[in-house]
Amino acid sequence: MKLFSGNANRQLAQKIADTLNISLSKTEVSIFPDGEKRIQITQNVVDEHVFILQTANTPVDMNYMELFFLIDALKRSGAEFVTAIVPYFGYQRQDHIFRDGEAVSLEVIIKIIQTLGADRVVSLDMHSVRIPDMFTIPVSHLSALPKFAASIIHNGWNGIENILVSPDMGGIARIKKLSEYLDGMDYAYVEKNRDLNSGLLTASGVYGNLKRKKRAIIVDDMISSGKTIVLAAQELLHQGIETVSAFATHAIFTEESSIFLKTSPIENFFVTDTVLIPPEKQFAQLTILSIAEELAKEVQTILHDY
Ligand code: R5P
Q: For 185-244, how does the pLDDT look when each residue is reduced to its tens digit (9 = 90+)?
């Protein structure tokens, strides 16, 4: 087997390689003056099972193009089985038509990956549990929730005075699953409303029993601008919660989000390394939990079943 990496998150690819005790395979990438990329596989991959790690955060289109070129180059070079590990699967929030006339962007990405000949996809905490069903190739849908549960226990936040909270109703399945990992820990969700035209977010209450609860632990699939999670925290504090912690799998972190998050009333944030967070976007209240071991384990499982 061989493990290749795109440029979006080489650190994670290296960690997976280290865990598997293998070297990362090399690719040659050159960029033409007009910005076009040229990717060349320089190692023999004939009849090999090959894994590509490429996450699809900002700049999402560029990162996806790299993934597409890598799949194509590997297939043309004779790789027998190509697994695309896309820890954060960009465009997943556009998984259906919200307003007339829209494209289903996620479906476009899936079609391209499959048409290029990828044989399997591995991803984490996709926006909806139905997304894997949109593929015709097998998808390993992993989750950071067991890691979050371990961290909540480690911090002693699984007691009766604490409550898990989804920042919107769409995350209720996620919060129920996490509650199961934590022996049925209480949970609630914030009623979030988004104006599709202006993008404006508002909260109109919390569903769940906050009586005698002191700490709320908000759990979401991703933090992008940070507005969803901070709005939920404000609503919870307004309802009498004393302290808020936040967990999210994908730290998309748009330009202004770090300042917004670190000056927010949320005491601490836990995210994973599905997306590489550059040092300038990190802040004191942020803890990054690596999912390299989980991904390495999945690589071993896929190889075993292959
Ligand atoms: C929305 O349904 C998602 O689960 C996230 O809550 C949302 O995408 C986070 O985005 P932002 O941080 O920009 O509010």
A: 999 999 988 888 888 889 989 999 999 999 999 999 999 999 999 999 999 999 999 999
For ligand 1, the distance from its centroid to the CA atom of residue 293, given in whole angstroms, is 26
Euclidean distance between CA atoms 4 and 23, whole angstroms: 9
pLDDT given at position 198: 86
What is the pLDDT, as a whole number, of residue 199?
A: 84
Question: How far does the centroid of ligand 1 lie from the alpha carbon of residue 171, in Å?
Answer: 10
In tens, the pLDDT along 234-290 reads 999 999 999 999 999 999 999 999 999 999 999 999 999 999 999 999 999 999 999
Query: What are the pLDDT digits (tens) for 63-86?
Result: 999 999 999 999 999 999 999 999
Strand partners, 250: 222
| Torsion from C-alpha of 157, 158, 159, 161, nearest 10 degrees | 60
Asked if residue 147 lies in contact with residue 272, where contact means CB atoms within 8 angstroms, the answer is: yes
Alpha-helix runs per DSSP H in the chain: 10-20, 60-76, 105-116, 145-154, 172-181, 227-238, 257-262, 292-305
Is the C-beta atom of 119 inside 6 A of ligand 1? no
| Helix, strand, coil abundance in the chain, percent, nearest 5 | 35, 25, 40
Specify the ligand 1 atom closest to the Cα of 167.
6
Structure tokens at 108: 């476009």
**CA distance readout (Å), 298 to 11, 215, 295:** 18, 34, 5
Would you please indicate which residues are annotated as catalytic (active-site) residues? 192
User: What's the rounded Cα separation, in Å, for the pair 102 and 97?
Assistant: 6
Q: Which two tokens stand for residue 191?
A: 């009623």
Whole-number Å distance between alpha carbons of 267 and 246: 8
